[in-house]
Specification:
There is one protein chain. The chain is mainly beta. Helices cover 12% and strands 40% of the residues. The strands form two sheets. Strands 2-1-6 form a three-stranded antiparallel β-sheet, with no helix packed on it. The protein has a three-stranded antiparallel β-sheet with strand order 3-4-5, with no helix packed on it.
């Protein structure tokens, strides 16, 4: 994934999931949960810790490992 593509996705302010080549995925519910420094080849995603509800874990992810991004969309009821 390119820096520009991920930056655009972050600016859309829509919750999304980052998929990694090894099968892991990281939920990004809001812009505050991801850091993409200018010109960087990595991003940092913050997720809640599994064992401590008041703690968070930061994941440094090389952009070359990002295989895709999926966003959640709600469609109006017909």
């Amino acid at each position: 994934m390119t820096h520009a593509t991920l930056k655009t996705k972050i600016k859309e302010s829509i919750p999304f999931t980052i998929h990694i080549a090894d099968g892991r995925r990281y939920e990004v519910p809001h812009q505050d949960f991801i850091l993409l420094p200018p010109g960087a080849t990595f991003c940092v995603v913050v997720t809640p810790a599994d064992d401590e509800p008041d703690e968070y874990v930061s994941h440094t992810i090389p952009l070359l490992m990002v295989s895709g991004v999926a966003e959640r969309t709600k469609y109006p009821a017909s």
